[in-house]
């Protein structure tokens, strides 16, 4: 256990009362055992130190004794008890606002739901099934077969805490036998096998707004696990996963479509009927002279959210015919003869190449495979 209280609170030796309070508040929030379920033991120890440091430095008299004589000086004070300092209730006093969150609550439930882009486009009502823990009806959540099977914990005599001597003061810790409840169960409930809860399946309808983003988490208060009537149930968190669509890609409120078209349609123009969302068929016009990856923006055809419409963006991908026969090849050759002068970009490119050829006199010819 660290004894430099200034260091624990991360304040200077001449910190004001206000600075000390602020530092404590920040650290206490960070290390509160309720907020550190994974490493609660470690957090609890550190939390105790923070508590002790604040108890001493926030009290003018104690602080001045500590400054002059250190911890030993405090210990020498009549009626001074370190145990009081490690009392958690101290924390509750200073955080009236945070105290509510400190209350025991049922556990939360997380549910993943998978939605298609079609469902996201128009919004959807989904039914989900959750498995809620509710207090066992047989034992009323106690986990004991009968009320007589609940006994006072012999280790802590019902106090829920045990004291261990550490160095020159006594530490109060949660009782390892009863985990702080002060009670032990001699015969477990045969229905829940001592867990105190049963699992109830529940169906819920969830309304998904159109345009919702992937990874959105919806919170439904009090739809989590139930401990008892005394405490609030936990919450239900619904995590939205959007399935990838093989055709349409979503980016924000916009929908992207890579539309494969033939080289002929690209040259002379064409039409494509596109089965779209919400049972619409879109007639996409391929303009004459379309180049590869040209974009066509259809304003307002994207997703709708909060009155804002995204766009549908069509990206034309040009494909050449595959495995043509001799006749087709012949036709293409004569076509090519007729259209040789119709490629301004290619023409421009080769005129640059010609200039480079002229500059090179003695060259070595390399054949690249
Ligand atoms: Zn039970
Ligand atoms: Zn106990």
Model description:
This protein has helices at about 5-10, 15-30, 40-55, 60-75, 80-85, 90-95, 95-100, 115-120, 265-270, 325-340, 345-360; strands at about 110-115, 125-135, 150, 160-165, 170-175, 185, 195-210, 215-220, 235-240, 250, 255-260, 270-275, 280-285, 295-300, 305, 310, 310-320. It has about 375 residues and is of the alpha+beta class. It folds into 5 domains: about 5-100, Helix Hairpins (Orthogonal Bundle); about 105-140 and about 195-245, Urease metallochaperone UreE, N-terminal domain (HSP40/DNAj peptide-binding domain, Sandwich); about 145-185, no CATH class; about 250-320, HSP40/DNAj peptide-binding domain (Sandwich); about 325-360, no CATH class. A 4-stranded mixed sheet has the order 10-11-17-14. A 3-stranded mixed sheet has the order 1-9-8. The chain is elongated and about 110 Å long.
Structural class: alpha+beta
Terminal Cα span = 75 Å
SSE pattern, N- to C-terminal: HHHHHHHEHEEEEEEEEEEHEEEEEEHH
CATH architecture of the largest domain: Orthogonal Bundle
| Distinct small-molecule ligands in the complex | zinc ion
Using only CA atoms, what is the Rg? 37 Å
Features:
alpha+beta, HSP40/DNAj peptide-binding domain, 5 domains, three-stranded mixed sheet, 17 strands
Short characterization:
By secondary structure, this protein is of the alpha+beta class. It has 5 domains: 5-102, Orthogonal Bundle (Helix Hairpins); 104-141 and 195-244, Urease metallochaperone UreE, N-terminal domain (HSP40/DNAj peptide-binding domain); 147-186, no CATH class; 248-319, HSP40/DNAj peptide-binding domain (Sandwich); 326-358, no CATH class.
């Amino acid at each position: 256990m660290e004894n430099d209280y200034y260091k624990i609170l991360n304040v200077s030796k001449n910190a004001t009362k206000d600075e000390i309070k602020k530092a404590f508040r920040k650290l206490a929030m960070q290390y509160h055992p309720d907020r550190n379920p994974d490493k609660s033991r470690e957090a609890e120890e550190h939390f105790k130190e923070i508590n002790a440091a604040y108890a001493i430095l926030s009290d003018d008299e104690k602080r001045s004794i500590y400054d002059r004589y250190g911890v030993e000086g405090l210990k020498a004070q009549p009626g001074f008890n370190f145990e009081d300092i490690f009392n958690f209730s101290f924390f509750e006093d200073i955080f009236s606002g945070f105290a509510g969150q400190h209350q025991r609550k049922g556990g939360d439930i997380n549910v993943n739901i998978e939605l298609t882009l079609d469902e996201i486009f128009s919004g959807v009502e989904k039914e989900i099934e959750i498995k809620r823990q509710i207090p066992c009806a047989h034992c009323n959540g106690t986990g004991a077969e009968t009320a007589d099977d609940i006994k006072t914990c012999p280790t802590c005599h019902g106090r829920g805490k045990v004291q261990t001597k550490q160095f020159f003061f006594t530490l109060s810790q949660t009782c390892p036998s009863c985990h702080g409840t002060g009670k032990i169960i001699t015969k477990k409930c045969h229905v829940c096998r001592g867990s105190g809860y049963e699992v109830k399946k529940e169906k819920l309808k969830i309304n998904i707004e159109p345009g919702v983003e992937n990874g959105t988490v919806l919170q439904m208060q009090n739809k989590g696990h139930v401990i008892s009537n005394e405490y609030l149930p936990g919450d239900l968190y619904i995590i939205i996963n959007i399935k990838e669509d093989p055709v349409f890609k979503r980016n924000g409120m916009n929908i992207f479509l890579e539309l494969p078209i033939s080289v002929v349609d690209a040259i002379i123009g064409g039409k494509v009927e596109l089965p779209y969302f919400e049972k619409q068929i879109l007639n996409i016009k391929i303009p004459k002279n379309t180049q590869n990856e040209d974009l066509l923006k259809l304003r307002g055809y994207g997703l709708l959210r909060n009155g804002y419409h995204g766009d549908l963006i069509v990206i034309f991908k040009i494909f050449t015919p595959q495995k043509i026969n001799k006749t087709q090849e012949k036709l293409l050759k004569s076509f090519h003869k007729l259209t040789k002068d119709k490629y301004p970009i290619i023409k421009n490119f080769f005129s640059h190449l010609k200039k480079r050829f002229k500059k090179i006199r003695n060259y070595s010819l390399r054949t690249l495979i």
